[in-house]
Amino acid sequence: MTLAAPVLPVPRRTGRRPRCGTRFAAWAFLLPAVAYVVVFFGYPLAANVVMSTQDYTVKSFYTGEAPFVGLANYAAVLTDPLFSTAALNTVLFTAGSLVFQFVIGLALAVFFTGRFLGSALLRSLLLLPWLLPLVVSGAVWRWMFDQDHGVLNAALRLAGLGAVPWLSSTGWALPAVILTNIWIGIPFNLVILHGGLRAIPASLHEAAALDGAGAWQRFRYVTWPLLRPVSGIVLMLGLVYTIKVFDVIMVVTGGGPANATQTLTTWSYRLSFQDFTFGRGAAVGNVLILVATGFGLLYLRSAKATLAEAAT
Amino acid sequence: MSVARRALFLAASAALLAACSPSPAPQTPDAPAATSVTELDYYADEQGSAAWQKILDACAAQTGIKIERQTVPTAQMLPKILQGASSKTLPGLLFTDNPTLQQVAATGALTPLSDYGISADGYYPSIVKAGTYQGKIYGVAPGVNGLALIYNKDLLTAAGVQPPSTWDDLKAAAAKLTKDGKYGLAFSAIPSEEGTWQFLPFFWSNGAELSQLDSPQSTQALRYVTDLVTSGSASKSVVTWNQNDVADQFVAGNAAMMINGSWNLARLDEQASLHYGVVPIPVPKAGAKPVVALGGEVGAVPVTSGPTQQAAGKVLSCVLAEPIMLQWSKAHAYIPSKTAVAARFGAEQPAMQAFVDEVGSARSRTAELGEKYPKVSQALADAIQASLTGKQPADQALKTAQQAAGS
Question: Who among A56, A62, A286 is closest to B22 (CB)?
Fold first, then answer.
């Protein structure tokens, strides 16, 4: 978007004109941001809300006509037997992914604060899952999970354990996609937490060590409290990022078997693009947006509280 | 928020264009044809894409119309058409999966093919049904396909097994061929249209109807397929295999038989050490006719502008002409969609004879249900998965499906 520079009058050092000019300039500077938000967030959001109140079908795309149905789409979606399955799966997927990504990411970050030979190389290698396209990672995990010829089951057999029906059993499929997503999410947690750890002054650790604090105590009473703001950001971003995960599930299981890995995101896609009930798909999408926004507000509030705490 | 975003994007583009009123098709049959036309298809695999390009090149040379080709992955086809429909940027000519044609025709975005002098005379009635919406023909296919049982000759001979023709034969053969980490049978039962399409031959051959998913015939068919998996004759992984994966398993020698379509034959021919045979899908009782679902892409001419539509009509007529139809069928292992051409084709190509035999009794998936088919198909795919994974017994799974399909 290009904006013509506001034509300002030649500044004279008297009168109200310059003040008026700066005010105008202030608005002009704000305009790109406002226009961006309105065009790319406000408008689509409003359009999606409108769509969720319409009986929007394949036909509507061509004719542009979609009858208004009020909250019928929401009612249909909320009473659908799949809703509780998808909602529960979303919660399990998000919570399972976040907990393990964070714990493993933090453990690795702490590990990498120590300087040792090859630590930088190892750390950059650990970023790999993050750099790969999700569809590629998903497809490879799907092969590895294969019940008969997958490498995971081959390893289990070597270890004398039975094969696990990773993707073909309703009980194992969700843990399998969570496992995939944990692997994908660890680098993100590692990088940000590692940055947070390096920002903690070494002198604090030294002082604590001098006072006789052990390794665990130093972590518990020095590192952890100082890392809290960063942890908050990591978890918050992780939550928003995980709740909307789509490609991983779509590639690894397609929501199956028997809807065992159907989350609100994949279900929304299915309602829109497989059942062609776009209004219902939009309704599920809006529910997701609402949940993510709710958590976002919670985070902002807690961040405010932390700031206030820091100020006093 | 990728899905939400996608929905947002669609919503946005739809709303943006809602303001533009749909312009009626310019009814100018005598308008001069344009000199170039855009074409959309989903032959994205290497062999299919190359074969289709040859067909388009031949027709470009014949008609003198330049064809600008666009190819999208199968799953992106309908979203792409919808996007084009809402922004009035549809391609001049499109080739889409036959069960989606009625969906697209229902939007009003397609023109009847009679406008271009294309008639459905001589075609298999089932493909004509798939291309018909409200009494008018909107899509005609140059070639069709269906599913059959493809078997590994060496493995069957070694086990002393004859290619099965009935359900009992298939069950016994699959059990006998399952050994040394190999499965007797491979098929696809993924939770989408592909899974339904693979189950329909069992469903329809047993006399079940899509209008009643929980009929005794339907339950019996699903029980039969479920037994193949629970008895271990087919891998439990069938719920995650698409048809390409099934072909992979067969080529790798992990499965002695597979249910798959004719389009795989070109790939099987590439494997010099693989000797395969094809028989029609086994039927419930000896003497019954197998009823498979009809596959294949239909060509349709969307509403664009008079000259473009005329040009697209000319190209489509060329693609449907007998020599081109034969060329396409040979290159992509399809069955010509005209009965007389197909009969000659089957006689020339023995490996295709089983497919040609089946297409005569094949059914169009959308003939009875029309636009309602996707919903029923999805419900049935869910039921198949629920039964195969043991989440629900076959009868209950189908009851749930019937409720979902009816709502």
Answer: A62
Which of A 162-191 lie inside 8 A of B, CB atoms?
165, 167-170
Which CATH number belongs to the domain containing residue A305 in this structure?
1.10.3720.10
Which fold is adopted by the domain B31-145+294-361?
Answer: D-Maltodextrin-Binding Protein; domain 2 (3.40.190)
* CB proximity A261 to B under 8 Å: no
How many structural domains compose chain A?
Answer: 1
Report domain extents, chain B.
31-145+294-361, 147-293+370-406
Contact B8 A285 (CB under 8 A): yes
DSSP 3-state of B78: helix
The alpha-carbon gap from A75 to the nearest alpha carbon of chain B, in Å, equals 13
B15, B181, B239: residue with CB nearest A47: B15
**Per-residue pLDDT tens digits of chain B, which is 407 residues long:** 444 444 444 444 444 433 343 444 444 445 677 889 999 999 988 888 999 999 999 999 999 999 999 999 888 898 899 889 888 899 999 999 999 999 899 888 999 999 999 998 999 998 999 999 999 999 999 999 999 999 999 999 999 999 999 999 999 999 999 988 899 999 999 998 999 999 999 999 999 999 999 999 999 999 999 999 999 999 999 999 989 889 999 999 999 999 999 888 888 988 889 999 999 999 999 988 899 999 999 999 999 988 999 999 999 999 999 999 999 999 888 999 999 999 999 888 888 888 998 888 899 999 888 888 988 999 999 999 999 999 999 999 999 999 988 86
Looking at the domain assignment, is residue A64 inside a domain?
no
Question: In the CATH scheme, what is the code of domain B147-293+370-406?
Answer: 3.40.190.10
d(CA A16, CA A27): 17
> How many contacts, defined by CB atoms under 8 Å, are there between A and B?
169
Residue in chain B closest to A251 (alpha carbons) equals B240
Does the fold of domain B147-293+370-406 match that of domain B31-145+294-361?
A: yes
In a domain, residue A133? The reply is yes
Instruction: Indicate whether A180 belongs to any domain.
Output: yes
pLDDT value for B8: 45
Closest residue on chain A to B14 (Cα)? A61
Give the pair of three-digit tokens for residue B127. 């493909």
Parallel, antiparallel, or unpaired for β B136-137 and B66-71? unpaired
B-proximal residues of A, 22-61, CB under 8 Å: 43-45, 47-48, 50-51, 56, 58-61
Instruction: Test B1 with A244 for CB contact under 8 angstroms.
Output: yes
Cβ distance of B12 and A44 shorter than 8 Å? yes
Q: The domain containing residue A142 runs over which residues?
A: 89-311
Minimum-distance CB partner of B192 among A258, A274, A278: A274
> What distance in Å separates the CA atoms of residue B179 and residue B401, rounded to the nearest whole number?
35
| Predicted ipTM > 0.95 | no
Residue A205: CB atoms within 10 Å: 17
Q: Cβ contacts (< 8 Å) between A142 and chain B: which residues?
A: 240
| Chain B interface test: which of A58, A249, A265 (most B C-beta within 10 Å) | A58
Q: How far is CA B126 from CA B15, B291, B317, in A?
A: 37, 12, 20
Task: Write B21-26 long-range contacts (CB < 8 A, 24+).
Answer: B21/A64, B22/A62, B22/A63, B22/A64, B22/B88, B22/B108, B23/B88, B23/B303, B25/B111, B25/B303, B25/B309, B26/B305, B26/B306
Q: Which residues contact A302 (CB under 8 A, 6 or more apart)?
A: A232
